[in-house]
Amino acid sequence: MPVRVGMVSLGCAKNRVDAEMMLFTLREAGFELVADAAMSDVAIVNTCGFIEDAKQESIDEILELAALKKEGRIKAIIVTGCLAERYQSEVMKELYEVDAVIGIGANSTIAEVINKVLEGKKYESYPEKTDLALCGGRIRSTPFYYAYLKIAEGCDNKCTYCAIPMIRGCFRSRPMDDILREADELSKKGVKELIIIAQDTSRYGEDVAGRSLLPELLEKLCALDSVCHIRVLYCYPERMSDELIDVFAREEKILKYIDIPLQHCSGRILKLMNRHGDRQSLTSLINKLRERIPGITIRTTLMTGFPSETEEDFTQLSEFVNEIRFDRLGCFAYSAEEDTPAARMKEQLDEQTKKHRQEIIMEQQQVIMAENAVKQIGKTIKVICEGFDRYAECFFGRSKADAPEVDGKVFFAAEGSRPKIGDIINVEITDTLDCDLMGFYRE
Questions:
Q1: What is the Cβ-side half-sphere exposure of residue 277, based on CA atoms within 13 angstroms?
Q2: What is the CB neighbour count within 10 angstroms for residue 372?
Q3: 413 in Cβ contact with 383 (< 8 Å)
Q4: I need a surface site. Which of 21, 223, 301, 430 has the fewest CB within 10 A?
Q5: How far apart are CA 6 and CA 308, in angstroms?
């Protein structure tokens, strides 16, 4: 009887792709994959270790599985991912229920690791981060109609608050031919939305060509007959070149949606973060994007409570949010991460102040998004159908303005024939539900 293996993958979409590649390795090695880790013989927790909340979520998941192991329901627990890479032997020392801890460079050896723990051996392995494969098969965990396409690994930006370069290593671009091959394969299997991801997608190619190759990559992806829609995440503002903007504006297959993590608008704070720009330059960029790409949806990420952030700095940020009126926005309270330059800075703010400022920004954004949603009433928009909510007794899906897992939904009733999951349909917007849209589908 084959060994049953279940995996819980936490954190970002980039970590999810790593998990999918490990699942492919395990299936090829003859293991039986189960959807629920609680029903497995061996449970793998592919952890996130980016900020304190994510670390705690990873630890909580391990402890829940540890309780099942104590009851004899599972035989072993393996910890992979960012928490494992960052803290290495400390994980095993602090969580004695864990049977193996491996760094990201050991992902390709996951089948051998399982065999070792089933022999009753405790096991650890932390090879070079660059041993993490950029290419290879994977078993997708997303719905059939969209897929993440990771184009690079690691990061060279060295933002002072961020531990990713320590965890993931230097920036490494994936070969363009391999990206194009996988994009073609995924699209021919029914994927309608390819979501381009990396820690910094706009840096793609700089390590091999000395310049960004993202515009060229996007053009070649759009030239594939099989490809339907492309969504691009994580473009840094200083790399939003005119060439890249032109590609967004020109290529019909690229959804007019872009994720630009800005973090702040105060020039002083951005400099302390080792980021670029200030309120004036960032405002100019957003205005240029909206002028050159009519109807574009702009998402950003902001941070409150960075060391030495004054009331004046925060007021600037609050005014900036109200002035720019981002279509989508996430805001996080600063988390002091061990061994980062920002954690060693003086004038660390108290948790209450950081959290309070975060809440103010998010309350502002909720008002903006609710007002923007009302403006959609009476319009007919394209929506990809994602399912039926039996409690609300209506269908739901996403518009081009909504990325999966991070943005909103469109809820709609169907008159006449019922749409299938994955169908791209026209929905007439008739109302709003907070920041979400409501409407009707008529064939």
A1: 19
A2: 17
A3: no
A4: 223
A5: 44
Cβ neighbour number for residue 190 with a 10 Å cutoff: 13
Cβ-Cβ contacts under 8 Å for 108 (sequence gap 6 or more): 25, 131, 133, 136
* pLDDT averaged over 10-residue windows placed end to end, the chain, 443 residues: 88 91 94 88 86 79 85 89 89 88 94 92 92 92 95 94 92 96 95 96 96 96 96 95 96 96 97 96 97 96 97 97 96 93 95 97 96 95 93 91 93 88 94 92 82
For helices 351-374 and 311-324, angle between their N-to-C axes, nearest 10 degrees: 10
What are the distances in angstroms from CA 230 to CA 25, 224, 226, 233? 27, 11, 12, 10
- pTM to 2 decimal places: 0.93
CA distance 71 to 49: 28
Q: Tokens representing 230?
A: 């492309």
Q: Exposed (0-12), middle (13-18) or buried (19+): which is 200, by Cβ within 10 Å?
A: buried
pLDDT of residue 146: 95
Domains of the chain and CATH, by start = 4-131 (3.40.50.12160), 146-374 (3.80.30.20), 380-442 (2.40.50.140)
SS3 101: strand
Handedness of CA 242, 244, 248, 251 (dihedral sign): positive
Cα gap 329→69, rounded to integer Å = 40
Structure tokens at 66: 């540890």
Q: Which of 14, 48, 15 is nearest to 335 (CA)?
A: 48
Which tokens go with 206?
């700089």
CA separation for the pair 235, 214 (Å, rounded): 10
Crossing angle (nearest 10°) for helices 176-188 and 214-223? 30
Could you tell me the two tokens for 373?
A: 């949603």
